[in-house]
Amino acid sequence: MLAFIFTIEEINRNTRLLPNISLGYESHNSLNSKGNILENVLRLHTGQDEIPNYMCGGESKSVALLTGTSAATSEQSAPLLELYKFPQLAFGSFDPVLSEYGQFPSLYQMAPKDTSLALGMVSLMRHFSWNWVGLVITEGPKGLQFLSDMRSEMDKNRICAAFWKILSSSSLVYASSSPYDFLIRETSLVKVIFLYYDTDGVNDINHYIGLHLVTQIVWVTNSQWHADMTGKNFILDTFHGILIFSNHHEEVSGFKSFLQRVKPSSYPADIFLQHLWYSSFHCSLSESDCVLENCAPNASLAQLPANRLEPAMSDASYNIYNAVYAVAHALHEMLLRQLEMQPVRNGSGIVTSPWKLHSLLKNIKFDTCAGEHVNLDKERKLHIKFDILKFWNFPEGLRLKVKVGEFSPHVPNGQQLTLSEMIQWDSLIAKIPHSVCTESCNPGFRKSPQEGKPSCCFDCSICSEGEIANETDMDQCVKCPDHQYANIQRNRCIQKSVTFLAYEDTLGKMLTGTALCFTVLTVVVLGLFVKHRDTPIVKANNRALSYILLTSLTCCFLCSLLFIGHPNTATCILQQTTFGVVFTVVVSTVLAKTITVVLAFKVTAPGRKMRQFLVSGAPNYIIPICSLIQLTLCGIWMGTNPPYIDTDAHSEQGQIIIVCNKGSLTAFYCVLGYLGSLALVSFTVAFLARKLPDTFNEAKFLTFSMLVFCSVWVTFLPVYHSTKGKVMVAMEVFSILASSAGLLGCIFAPKCYIILLRPDSNYLHGSRDKMYSKKNKHY
């Protein structure tokens, strides 16, 4: 009411707005009664009290009606005033219902749109990482619309409502506190509750919530909330420290000075001002005429604490201020048009018809003294900017509202909410409240939904091997690229190092040294055989085959070096072809030696006619024939799908292994299969000839050597397939060395023993004497 009077007096002092014309006013108290509302509207419109809807003695001088903060008042008065096209300006919070479907074209809402309130509150939740909150809404169309907007915005931002409660504004409900039992049951689940008020029933709701004494809860509400007038129980007050989304408006200059000079004597008809003065400044009443006496000296409303009277304009007061100015600007424009059409003489002839103001009010635009733009067009109204206030009631009765931030829907996303870096929370809440259903999943973990619970309630599961989560609360882990691997914490991908079976590695050094040692040893044996080439033990079983076998074994040991070092296209091809061909020569040579033993025995037996096979050197043809078959298989392999350089990023943690891909596995296994078949034939023939009685018969040694050879490669296959990376290559090298060493040791170690340590046995006559003495003893 004081803001209303202040605005009218300010306009009347303005020489540019409505010059030489004074605005008057009258006020009516509806007392929340529909009958009183209609009665007051009729009085305002007709200018008389007795006969409704009938004018006697001329028109009323009223040009507009300002209705209260309750939408119910506007809804009651609007249908009646609509009959007369009488302008009505509502200064309560913006209500979409009043602007829908053109029901009330003569009704104008001064408040800006507050539909961005839900977005602002959700932005606050996001800022403080609150994803588990409670919602308390007052019943009504605006409350239900706000609930819908809130749940929609919360769903977009993955914020959950632990509970939501709609409170009825019916006075019958307030007779019992049962609707507020949720304050005991459910507030323990959350640390933050968002409370939305419509205008009606604020005091009653505050009262019943306050009775339950809910502490250590942060309440967030809209500008319709206001504290009780007593302001007691500053520590045990439920709403101490509440955050308020208040409509932003600039301070109106001159209003505080107006409050300082206003006196009851200046407005004798205002009984509410007299009552406030009487109760606030310890005045007394004279018995004769009930005039205030003995008040505190220099009493002023500006001296009252905030719990008695806030010096700043409230939202409703600011809307009243703009509403009066809107009517004044429209009236000024209408009078200017009348003066242009019909000049007035002696200040008479001006007629104001309220219905004529509509065309002007719909398009009225002006800037207030506070510098804000006002527009009554409901289609062009902007969403309001919100100030975020924190309510303090310490010390007792302070009722201080401190601005801690603001929210503006007109700026880009991410910049809409600004908050003070240092927000002082309630004394019972030492730090920023933490309202979540489940603590955040740290990097390295992903969220696993809990069955039957909202998305904000989840378990944290560690990422699988090779996957990371580098942010908190990730729904899914991210797989590292092939050239990277996940660290132990599973929160970062690390670049893999490139590796291969290098000569510098310990394993590479061991295999290389072993291969070179066996190569040198084989060359030494070959030299020894060449030196003693004319001795019976060297000449036995075809010394040329022994030379071929030793030479091919040397190549076997050396070919293992192709598997060590940085692979390239040439080494990848040579690895398999050299291995296949050289080992084929070795095995076919063993087969040729075994057949030579068999033929030699058959030739010495009476009545045999196989001498020509032995003399002609037929067993020696086995080697080129078998080798040619293997060369053909290798040629087909190289021509269709040869080996190539490949990378193995999965065998070893943190390493990319450069390996030689076999290319065609079918061709690879054909080469191995052919080699295995040849070895099996050699073993079988040697096994059958192991007991032939002949001097220097090496069939037993050939049998044992092939047994070792076959055992190595039979063992190699399953082990080879069960290993990966460098170990697989090392296993292949080891098998080559082991099988080659087995042949070298089993075949040539006994002969070297005789040559070096038993030279007396290395001649044919001695051997025959021994055989002859054995036969005599047998007989």
Structure, described:
This protein is α/β, with parallel strands linked by helices and 779 residues long. It has 5 domains: 2-111 and 314-375, Rossmann fold (3-Layer(aba) Sandwich), CATH 3.40.50.2300; 117-248 and 384-419, Rossmann fold (3-Layer(aba) Sandwich); 262-312, no CATH class; 445-495, no CATH class; 506-765, Rhopdopsin 7-helix transmembrane proteins (Up-down Bundle). It contains 22 helices and 24 strands. It has an 8-stranded mixed β-sheet with strand order 5-4-6-7-8-13-14-15, with helices on one face. A 3-stranded parallel β-sheet has the order 1-2-3, sandwiched between helices. Strands 22-24-23 form a 3-stranded mixed β-sheet. A hairpin with a 7-residue loop joins strand 13 and strand 14 (400-407). Helix 16 runs antiparallel to helix 18 (622-640). The longest helix is centred in the C-terminal third of the chain and has 36 residues, at 569-604.
Keywords:
8-stranded mixed β-sheet, Rossmann fold, 43% helix, alpha/beta, 13% strand, 779 residues, single chain
